[in-house]
Structure formats: structure tokens, C-alpha cells
Amino acid sequence: MTTYILVSIGSGVLFGLMDGLVNANPLARKLYKVFEPIAKKSINVPIGLAIDLVYGFALAGGFLLLHASLPGPSGLVKGLAFGGMVWFARVAMQVASQWMMFVVPARALAYTLAAGLVEMLALGLLYGLTLR
């Protein structure tokens, strides 16, 4: 239980840091200009961190629940499989929805897909290497 709590907190913090890097870098800011008319002017950092921590607990718990049924002989492979599954459910479906509903440049959608894949695989690796 202690490992689960520590990994959940660590993954929540890591998720928040990666989100900050992915969304605040100069390339992302240029690509995501399309969202400026509807984007908030400031971010509530404490609430954002709380959401990321809850997400870390949920993902770590989900990994533990699915661990036995994930493909692969090692935690590394299981973590990558979990990251890929979460990427599809969280990122790919969001991008597909944006593509269908909004006028968003393909480069912005491709960036979201790629950056989200890196994030989810990193979290999956963390879970695969630390949780059983």
C-alpha cells in the first residue's frame, strides 16, 4: 500500500510537470493558438495539481487492477501496454473528437497525439517498473 501511495503521488506530480512542459513550450503555444479565444487567461495551479494527483491515484489503481491481464512477461512490457491503452482512451479519442467538431490544424492534432503518447508511455513505464 505504501508503494502504491508513493507511486501515485509521484505519477501525479510527473503528470503535472509533463503537462506543463508539453503545453507551455514555444512550439505548443504556437500550435495551440487556435484555442486562444476559448482558453482561460490564467491557470489555477493548486487545482491543477490536485487533479493531476487524483489522476495519478486513478491510473496507478487501474494499472494494479489490470496488471495480471496486461500482455507481456515483464513489468516493462505491461507498463508500455497500459500506457498505450490509456493513450488511446484519453488522448486519441480526444483528438478524434476535436478533429470532428472543431477547425484545428492537423499539426496541432498530431502534436497532441505525439506528446500524449510520450506522457502516457512514461507513466506506464513508471507503473510497470514500480507496481506489482
Measured as a percent range, the helix fraction is over 70%
**Low-pLDDT residue intervals, each spanning 5 or more residues:** none
Instruction: Kindly give the count of domains.
Output: 1
Average of the residue pLDDT scores: 94
H and E string: HHHHH
- Total beta strands: 0
What is the helix tally? 5
Name the assembly state: single chain
Radius of gyration: 16 Å
Proportion of residues in extended strands: under 5%
- Structural class per helix/strand content? mainly alpha
Main sheet record: none
Shape: globular
Distance linking N and C termini: 11 Å
Descriptive notes:
- The protein is mainly α.
- The chain has one domain.
- Helix content is 78%, strand content 0%.
- It has five helices and no strands.
- It has helices spanning 2-24, 26-31, 45-66, 75-101, 106-130.
- Helix 4 (75-101) runs antiparallel to helix 5.
- The termini are close together.
Topology:
Layout: H1 2-24, H2 26-31, H3 45-66, H4 75-101, H5 106-130
Helix pairs in contact: 1-3, 1-5, 4-5
Give short descriptive properties of this protein.
132 residues, mainly alpha, globular, 0% strand
